[in-house]
Amino acid sequence: MSNGLVWEQALEPLRRPVLVAGFEGWNDAADAASAAASWLTQHGSTDAALVASIDPEEHFDFQSRRPQVELVAGVTHKITWPENLFSVVRLEERDLVVLRGIEPSYRWRSFCGAVLEVAVVAGCELVVTFGALLADVPHTRTARVTGASTDPELVEQLGLTPSRYEGPTGIVGVLHDFCREQSVPSVSLWAPVPHYLAAPPNPPATLALLDRLGALCGLTLDLARLEATVASWREKVDEVAAADDDVRGYVATLEARFDEDDDSDTSWGASLPTGDELATEVERFLREQRGDA
C-alpha cells in the first residue's frame, strides 16, 4: 500500500539535521503547534526549500477535511488540497527538515511510514514534534513546556519527562510510537494553552515551543519579534480581563496555583482541568465573546 510520499526534489547534504513536525488538528490547541512549525520555515538563513509532500488522496476524508476553492484573477478557480509539506530550513548551527502538516483521517501507520522515510533519507539525528493542549494555566505566566520521549535513554540524556499519559491520542502519539518501533530517537514538546483562551492564535505557547526547541537542539533562534507579539497579546488580554471581576478573580486563582507548583513538576496531566471545569469555562468565555461582539 502506498504511503503517498512524493519527493519534490533531490535532497542535498544536510548538516546534523533534525526533523521537526507540527500538525493542525487534535494536537494543536489554539494553533500554537502548527504556528511554531510555520515560524521555522519563515526564519531560516535562506528561503525554506520544499523537498517532499504527502499525497492527501492517501490519507484524508475530504468530506471531513474539505479542499478549498479560490478565485484567481476573479475568474479561474483553484483548488487547494490539505497539505503535508516537508521543507529544508538552514540555520546557523544545523539544518532542519520541517513538516507542516494536518492530522490525517486514516492509514496513520503508512502516514508515519512516509514521515520516517523522509527522516531516514535526510539522515535526521532526531525527530521532534510540537503539540499544544488546553490546561488550567494563567495567560500572565510563561508557559511551561513539557518534553517527553518514549526512549528511556533519551529521557535521561536530555532531562525529559517520561510520558505517563494514558487515553486517546493523536497523530503525534502514533508517530512517536512508530519512531520507537523503528529505533529512531524522538522527542515530543507540549505547551499548555489557557483553556479560557482556546481561540487561536496563542503567541505565548508558540514562543515557548520554539524556545524549548532551541535549547534542545542547540539553536540560536531570533525570537525578538515574536516576543514583542506576545507582549502585545498579553496586554490586550489583560485589558479584557481587568474589565470583568469574575475573569480577573479566576485568573488570580490560576496564578496562585501556578506559582505554588514546583517548577520541576511537569508530569503529564498535572495541569489539565476536569471535563466539567473546561466545559463551564469555555462556554462562559464564548458567551462573553459573543456578547462583546
CATH superfamily: PAC-like subunit
| pLDDT < 50 runs, ≥5 residues | 263-279
Give the assembly state of these chains. Answer: single chain
User: How many domains is the backbone divided into?
Assistant: 1
> The CATH topology is what?
Rossmann fold
Largest beta sheet, briefly?
9 strands, mixed
The tally of beta strands, per DSSP, is 11
SSE run: EEHEEEEEHEEHEHEHHHH
Mean pLDDT: 87
- Which CATH class applies here? Alpha Beta
Q: Strand order across the biggest sheet?
A: 1-3-6-7-2-8-11-9-10
Helix content: 25-40%
* Structural class based on helices, strands and sheet pairing: alpha/beta
Beta-strand percentage range: 15-25%
Our Rg estimate from Cα atoms comes to: 20 Å
N-to-C span = 50 Å
Please tally the helical runs, counting DSSP H or I stretches of 4 or more residues: 8
CATH architecture: 3-Layer(aba) Sandwich
- Taken from the alpha-carbon principal axes, the silhouette is globular
Features:
22% strand, 293 residues, nine-stranded mixed β-sheet, 11 strands, single chain, two-stranded antiparallel ribbon, alpha/beta, Rossmann fold, globular, 8 helices
